[in-house]
Model the fold of this input.
Amino acid sequence: MVIHFKYPPGATPIDLDEAIGLIPKHISTQANLNAWEEINIVEGADWLARQNILHRLDEGLVRELHLRMFNKTWIWAGTFRKSAKSIGIDWTQIAVTLKNLLDNTAYQIKNKVMPIDELVVRFHHKLVLIHTFPNGNGRHARLIADALIVKLGGKRFSWGGNNSIATLGITRQNYLSALRAADNGDIAPLMHFARK
Done:
């Protein structure tokens, strides 16, 4: 059975070879997929809460979190993407660029080069920009950012309030606008959105 995915604006379309990696065969609609993924994501969040992210901010943690967020949904969960997308860096550069991001972030944390909110929001933005996985990058990056800010002694981000970023609506539009501004060097809208 093939699902006809309906993507909210800014979502990365799933390639046909990625779509055939759907594990639950009973899913036939985007709404069913979203509900199924949400349950799986909670399991990933629970796992991440038990990790000492400050001592394990590495590729293994990044992959393992994605795997735990989507391991009951996609056979490729935790695997770097192997195709070009409408956003993200060249897929052949993911491992190197991700390592640089993680190393730079660890250095910035250790040397307290900027306030923790800014440091973590910048980390989140760059992780989304890399677009490490075929799908789920925004949710994954927000979850890591939340865990990181808490471990650094801050409060979890609100990410635009209590509205879902994953579905159509003004909250998603504001998030995407803030990410685009950060792409162009203006981190202020994303910082505001994270704490709104």
In short: The two ends are 40 Å apart (CA to CA).
